Amino acid sequence: MNTVQSCPHKVPGTEGAPCRLCRIEVDNLSVTLGGQTLLRDVSLHIHCGELTALIGANGAGKTTLLRALLGQVEYKGTVRHLTADGRPAADIRTGYVPQQLEFDRSSPVTVMDFLACSLSRHAVFLGVGKKTRERAMTALARTHCEKLADRPLGALSGGELQRVLLALALTPQPDLLILDEPVSGVDQNGLETFYQTVDELKHRNHMAILLVSHDLDVVERYADRVVLMQGGVIKQGSPEVVFDSPEFEQVFYTRGGRA
Amino acid sequence: MNTIYALMDALLPFEWLHYTFMKNALLAILLITPLFGMLGTMAVDNKMAFFSDALGHSALTGIAIGVVLGVGSQMVSMLVFGILWAVLITFVKHNSKMSADTIISVFSSTSIALGLVILARGGAFAKYSSYLVGDVLSVTAGDLAGLLVTLLVTAVAWGMLFNPLLLTSVNAPLAQSRGVRAKLTEYAFTVIVAVAVMMSIRWVGVMLINSLLILPAAASRNVARNAAWYMRLSVLIALCCGVAGLVLSYYLNTSAGAAIVLCAAAAYFVTLPLRRK
Fold first, then answer.
1. Do residues A50 and A202 make contact, with C-beta atoms less than 8 angstroms apart?
2. Which residue is closest to A166 within chain B, CA to CA?
């Protein structure tokens, strides 16, 4: 059922060092919250160098699965991080781009403050040190948003904010990148730029990427594997296989049109 | 202490500073206001204005319990009660589906009523009415030491808590994904606010303490362009309003706490037009 795809076990540009994380094996993962079962018996593999997309209607448990993988909700079942030779991978770094930011946009916090408080222990109110500033600028350069450094976080457009969040998620370089509906409310241009950057990361850095998206066109174009969810996994495989399945039909077409 | 008084006489030869109680009051304000200016920034960013208001009200019950237990242990009982109360509100907020403002309101009213019932027994409440508006002129040298320790400890804790708090205020799951223990950070912050409130409540008063926390930070937000200036200006505004309020209260012969809060409110309204957009 889970096709183990080829993994070169090498990160391009690192002189053939094996990638730290080859795959994540999720077995029978269930989440119950307040007596309600949100996820039942989820089993799936997430592979490095691949973009795995989680799709499904609202309330299908996609975000709950992400939060379980982030270790933010309790779950039953196992999540194993493995290296290429099947041993447990130690110290997996996870980058996370949250769904939507509902924060106080009137707060006088700049993009630099926001990055510095995540990258450094040095209290931001004492000012941002030179080294931290350099690290933050390097991070911003990865998603081409150095210009935003001294703008207030609350003044960014949806697309700009997502690029800043992606820049942060990539610093330090993660083994697994989790994107939760990363471009909701972003214009077409911003959306293209965002996914091109993500695609580059996949190829260049051989990262495992897990994406939740409602945008099925994006999923069709960029995903290597698709996992269709409805309280659990009801279908998974390549985009073609999942998109042509009766389960897909049932979730997305019976309620009148593609969601 | 005498050295400090002599120094103040030499440096600040003003009429209003002639009295020792005014010197003590000034020193107390120089310790209390930066504390609140500092904590206020994150109270505002984390939308905790109402929460801190409830904490201020809970001081009334803390005082009442202190009175029942005897004056000697009053400070201790206030601190213990304040910390427990803050932790309890936060715990219920996290573990209940009710909206936060309802829960905070329930706790706030309970502590006011409980405090009043105990303090008003036998019609003796008038004796404690100074707790409502505070009396910074009654600060003693010993009290100042307590305030100094509070300020120093809080400043150190603040250095460690500020970044996680700032990150959590933007997005809690994101903060957690970066190794911040969001809940622990929130509890630590509420405990610090509770300690600051309890240590200062006798001088600032139940009715005014929250304004001292929120107003300087709110005014600073009107002008600050980044986090560093947000903090600096908040502390600076708190300090200036503290001193200005004390001087005003001396010449107008009125409550110092109220005059300080009025100055802070003025600072907020004066800076309001400077807001971006």
1. yes
2. B174
What percent of chain B clears pLDDT 90, i.e. is strictly above it? Answer: 54
Q: Whole-number mean pLDDT of chain B?
A: 90
Inter-chain residue contact A152 with B276, CB threshold 8 Å: yes
**Interface residue B183 vs chain A (CB under 8 A):** no
| CATH 3.40.630.40 given to domain A18-93+177-259 | no
- Residues paired with residue A79 on neighbouring β-strands, in sequence order: A26
A205: CB partners within 8 A, 6+ apart? A11, A12, A173
Chain A to chain B Cβ contacts (< 8 Å): 97
Structure token pair of residue B74: 């009053």
Q: Alpha-carbon Rg of chain A, whole angstroms? A: 19
A35 at interface of B, judged by CB pairs closer than 8 A: no
B7 within a domain of the structure (yes/no): no
Give dist(CA A168, CA A163) in Å, integer.
Answer: 9
pLDDT single digits (tens) B201-218 = 888 988 889 999 999 999
pLDDT single digits (tens) B84-125? 999 999 999 888 888 888 988 999 999 989 988 988 887 777
User: Does residue A5 surpass a pLDDT of 50?
Assistant: no
Nearest to A117 among B159, B167, B229 (CB): B167
Express each pLDDT in A88-118 by its tens digit. 887 788 999 987 677 888 889 999 999 999 9
Range of the domain at B56: 18-274
pLDDT computed for residue A4 by the predictor: 44
CB contact under 8 A, A117 and B227: yes
CATH of the domain at B104: 1.10.3470.10
Q: Is residue B10 part of a domain?
A: no
Rounded to whole angstroms, the Cα distance separating A117 from A134 reads 14
Three-state DSSP class for residue A54: strand
B224 touches chain A (CB under 8 A): yes
Average pLDDT, integer, range A10-31: 73
Q: Name B42's Cβ contacts closer than 8 Å, sequence gap at least 6.
A: B48, B161, B162, B165, B166, B169, B189
In a domain, residue B5? The reply is no
Chain B hits for A114, CB-CB cut-off 8 Å, are 166-167, 170
Instruction: State mean pLDDT over B237-265.
Output: 94
DSSP 8-state class, residue B128? G
Establish if B140 belongs to a structural domain: yes
Q: Do B45 and A94 touch (CB under 8 A)?
A: no
Q: pLDDT at residue A224 above 60?
A: yes
Q: What is the DSSP string of B36-97?
A: HHHHHHHHHHTT-HHHHHHHHHHHHHHHHHHHHH-GGGHHHHHHHHHHHHHHHHHHHHHT-S
ipTM reported for the complex, 2 dp: 0.87
Looking at the structure of chain B, the number of domains it has is: 1
CB count within 10 Å of CB A56 equals 24
Q: B181 touching A, CB under 8 A?
A: no
